[in-house]
Structures are given as C-alpha cells and as structure tokens.
Amino acid sequence: xxxxxxxxxxxxxxxxxxxxxxxxxxxxxxxxxxxxxxxxxxxxxxxxxxxxxxxxxxxxxxxxxxxxxxxxxxxxxxxxxxxxxxxxxxxxxxxxxxxxxxxxxxxxxxxxxxxxxxxxxxxxxxxxxxxxxxxxxxxxxxxxxxxxxxxxxxxxxxxxxxxxxxxxxxxxxxxxxxxxxxxxxxxxxxxxxxxxxxxxxxxxxx
Length: 206
Description:
Elements: H1 2-17, H2 20-23, H3 25-52, H4 54-70, H5 79-89, H6 93-114, H7 123-133, H8 135-161, H9 169-200
Helix pairs in contact: 3-4, 3-8, 4-6, 5-6, 7-8, 8-9
C-alpha cells in the first residue's frame, strides 16, 4: 500500500509539473481550484481536531465534505478526489464523480445508523441530518445539487481537455442550464430553510 501511494504521488507530481498545467489557462484553473479546496479541508480538519480531537475531527470533516458534495450544485468538493483520479488513472471526472457521490452516501448511511450523535457537533451537520432524514421536501435540495454538480463536472472535464477558455464549446452550450439549476437551488433552499425556521419556532401562517 505505501509503495502504491508513493507511486501515485510521484505520478501526480510529474503530471502537475508538465507545462500544460502551468501554460494552459483552463488546466491551471482546475489546478488552482483543487489546491484551494484541499487547503480549506485541511484547515477545517485542523480547527475541528483542536476542538474535538483527531478521531472525531476526522469524522466531522468527512461528513462536512459530504454535505458539500450532496447539497451544493457545484463540483468543488468532489474535485478533491476527481482531479487526482483524472491525473493518475485518466478516468474522466464525470465518471469518478459517481464514485464520489456513492462514497458520500455510504458515509452518511453508516453515520446515521451507527453514530448519529456526530451530527450534533456543528450547526451545519445538524441541518444536514435534518435534510437526510426528511426526504419530503428536503431531498429536492439533493436532486437539484446532483443535476448542478454533474453539469459542473461536465464543464470541469472540458477545462482539462482544452487549452483556452474560448475553446469551451460545451460550457457555452450548457452554461444557461447550470445557472438555471443554481437559481432554482437557491430559491428552493431559501423556501425550505424558511419553512424549517417557522416549524422550529412553532409559527403557523394560516
């Protein structure tokens, strides 16, 4: 296992060192996004670990990452796995994103069944648990996120396929659809959160 990790790390380093990931503005954008997401996740893990310990902090970080995978209509959280897999195994990110979603769903299924108290650690995870345990109407957020995420990953693959932004034909063809999904996601989220607050405080409009 260590030798496999070492080889994978060496291959990623060699891939990134190639001039196209520096010279090509599209590939360079993906590279910068990956390191930005990685830095945020590491920083969050360190912060949570100081408060709750390394073991608990690791679980909280994984579940928080899975929230952004399942409940946001962009692929930035999934990029943490999609990009290295694309570099090492040459598997398109839209395919690896399926595995990312499967992993996120598995993590939450196991946590709800065997360690539900972990969701009480942060307000975000409390909200996440409520979304997961109330399919109607809150899974509409996950459905919209799924559509938006896979469109976003579709654009991400194209970023690596081309050298300049003006060559992004798929992006220009489908960007309106993605923006529409994002707008619907925002509207739906606001309405559902408003409903959740009313319910929490026992306020009835009728």
